[in-house]
Amino acid sequence: MATAAAETQHLLERVESPETVQWVIALHGGAGGAQRQSLPEQTEQGVRRDLRLALQKGAAVLADGGRGPDAIVAALSVLEDSPRFNAGRGAALDEHGAARHDASIMRGEDRGSGAIAGSSRIKNPIVGAQAVMNQTANVLLNGAGADWFAQQSGLALVDPRYFVTDDRLKALSRVQQRAQTTQSNDILPDDLYGTVGAVVLDSHGNLAAGTSTGGRTNKRFGRIGDSPIVGAGTYASNESCAVSATGHGEYFIRWTVARDICARVEFARSTLDRAVATVLFEQLLAAGGTGGVVSILPGGLVVFGASTANMRRGVMTSGAPARVAVYSDELVTVLSDTN
Ligand code: ASP
């Protein structure tokens, strides 16, 4: 069953699973824009293809009895490798024209977490985050320290130029020109977005969440967003829910969005859709912050929410094919030729 808030451009979509469901993976590929932003057809098809492939890679891990974090890494690595998303190759560039990546991952059964911030050489930042979770007693490594750790751990490293695409260079120059003329650092409507994130219920009954991004175009050198901050951009606990967020990170950090949604479910006995709507539409929007989340309950109910007109996303469950959507007024549950 799916419902969407029809009277506004806001998205609030529930995707229910049968009681017999064994595993669920749901992901987002970034939220943005005040208006439905039709992409060139080839780009849109590429985005849908990437989302489906990411779901299928994650699903293959889950169908094999694999753990949630491994499914998240399999899915998000596909999107990090695609230049059509703001993560890994094709990440948004900072004010110096460099891609500096933020990523985090969290396990619901014991709150094990790992994150990297401001890394510039780890090919797949979500892999770096998982290595921090699995191999260290720490939660968050930053900058050169994160890259050095990845090298010591034998992770794939690349020349920083690998991440820089023409589209992102153009977006940076647009944003910088506009910042000069208007003294505003707002993101242009035609700027690309596309942070990536996923939530999972695995066949062991455990939740997990992960998020990966280049942050915001023209971000200040050294700026770190919500994506590597546990409780802000990512959260998972079997006692409540799992959330991955995308949007204006400074708001998601200050409103501890991912944790707040789960806390409402855990302590206020809120439904997940009510919790998502309250935090995104009533609290963040009122303060001026926009964005979206993908979230999941231990029973497998998925809720997508966004206060933007565009929200790339998808869901796949045991026993059903991958379903994807790009715009907030389009439901993942409606299957079509392009879906
Ligand atoms: N939340 C990310 C950040 O602020 C950006 C995004 O999700 O689009 O770094």
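The first strand starts at residue 11 and ends at 15.
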